[in-house]
Task: structure prediction
Amino acid sequence: MANIKDVAKMANVSISTVSHVINGTRFVSEEATHKVKEAMENLNYVPNVAAFSLRTKRSKNIGVVIPITADETSNVFFMQVMQGIETVLKKNGYFLVLSNSREDIACEEEEIKNLLKRQVDGLIIASARGDHGFVRELLEDKEYVFVDRVPEGLPDVDCVISDGEGGSYDAVSYLIGLGHRKIGVLCDIIGEYPNSDLRYQGYRRALEENGILFCEQYVQQCRSSIESGYAGTRKIMEETDITALYVVSNVNAMGALEYFREAGIRVPDDISLVIYDDYSWTKIFQPPITVIRQEAFEMGCKSAELLLRRMAEQGAADKPEFIRMKTALIERKSCNPVHN
Amino acid sequence: MANIKDVAKMANVSISTVSHVINGTRFVSEEATHKVKEAMENLNYVPNVAAFSLRTKRSKNIGVVIPITADETSNVFFMQVMQGIETVLKKNGYFLVLSNSREDIACEEEEIKNLLKRQVDGLIIASARGDHGFVRELLEDKEYVFVDRVPEGLPDVDCVISDGEGGSYDAVSYLIGLGHRKIGVLCDIIGEYPNSDLRYQGYRRALEENGILFCEQYVQQCRSSIESGYAGTRKIMEETDITALYVVSNVNAMGALEYFREAGIRVPDDISLVIYDDYSWTKIFQPPITVIRQEAFEMGCKSAELLLRRMAEQGAADKPEFIRMKTALIERKSCNPVHN
DNA sequence: CTGAAAGCGCTTACAG
DNA sequence: CTGAAAGCGCTTACAG
Result:
């Protein structure tokens, strides 16, 4: 492998000159530039990143921490986010170093420390549940942005998230527009998952703004699993007379559908259904399901762009940025109008 | 940030000694070891990876190239593979640097070159379609293993794949066991995707070993999309009298189901169905669908383990290894017996 | 417009 | 059992 010295020798210039033509860091005569470029070409020269990194303290690596478990459903989402991240990093000459917190806050801290050892130039974090107080100190002279999830206990940081509140508001408003008044909601345990909470709040706001009385029994809190989605749906169906159900998570929605099938409840004839998140199965389901779609790929792009911008600013940073991305209601065939 | 010199000073030893206690590369007296460890602790010392890498030419980074497009379905699969890879890399102190070829061979070559610049210590590649002749030279003194897909035009390399042929054989044998004799198959264009071809071959072998005549009209080749799965299924249903359908890919299966719904064809009453790949939607579909499951996470683990082993061997490598992982038939409710 | 040289933080023969 | 020193391949003041 040729190094910068070999190039300098072949081009008959100093290594400074070679370095400067590579990095464009000072003027080099056209002639010298040409000779250097030719030499690099001939020698198939590739700059040594380790040396660069040792000298400059920059690694051109960005650490990405995602919180995925074996649960396949969320995987698709984060894969799309990462695709977005990778796309813009590549475009800017950065690499993506991947870590997984497994949805465990202690593990997340560990991973961040490891990434720091690797001297990543910045971090993009989809945070696990739990207090993120440790982050401020740990990353005090590092740029980082959070994606998809606002970290708990860490106000005023850069975030790129979906507008889950607004999306839910849209979903429930849509149902209301169809004439529904008794609308159930399936969400996670309230107070445990910020994203689920946001979506729940959107539900509340839609009711409120439309002058519909909130009814405690219409909300079922269930953990993220097919089974608990099933149980929650069963409960709400047996104990109330809702005409529509809004499910805040894909996994729970699968449980809801399983219950409907077993109980012989037909969508949309017996109940209307809207789901948050547009996975491809919702499209081919019988009936195709009306969903709120979030732009996962775009979120990834935006978070990487924001991070790169922060890194360029070099501490001259202004206020933390909070990017809330619009969601879209994809109308399919899981909702019927209701005549009151 | 403290460096090795600071540690040496505080511990009253030479930097050689510090280095050797860090790496365990030569005997150091208990006393010195203790002092060094204490100093490292006090100074919160973290070895500089760039310096390590510059000196040793090893980066502790493993490049991973996956071939994903916007098509969400395959994303889940590769995410699981990566989870497996990341898990074993982490356990061994390595990091995962992620690249995406976007299913484009030229892009894949580009990505490999970039990863090489980063001086990754090894590569795990899920190859895109196309001739991989370039790999041998490009990676001549690098360890690499292929995962999920056997690279075209590159014999005798380490591979970890699912036994798609065997899985398909199981699927079709299962249908035959149920009494089916007229079994259709939906696969990709034959000759284009090795994995699809393998699955097609399993179909052929199952027929053959059971003395069932192969029938040209029972196979539909369609590109990977819901639409073409739809079209292929329509064709096969309109032109033949099959009683069972085996679909080799998840996306096409979605198209098949869409057609069945629209045409009013009931699964399993009118037709039995088996799908290759177990995504969670197949479980909650009406009816739940019988599938062939492949162990994506495990494949990731195995490929990383193999790579690490190769790297440890240091060229003393024996024959390339070809790991073919068992698949499993998950019986659900999409197949009925047929009485001949 | 360009070069010589210091130094980033390590590992590793070499020497004792 | 341990240390002094070279050197990995760069960037970047400094000097001219």
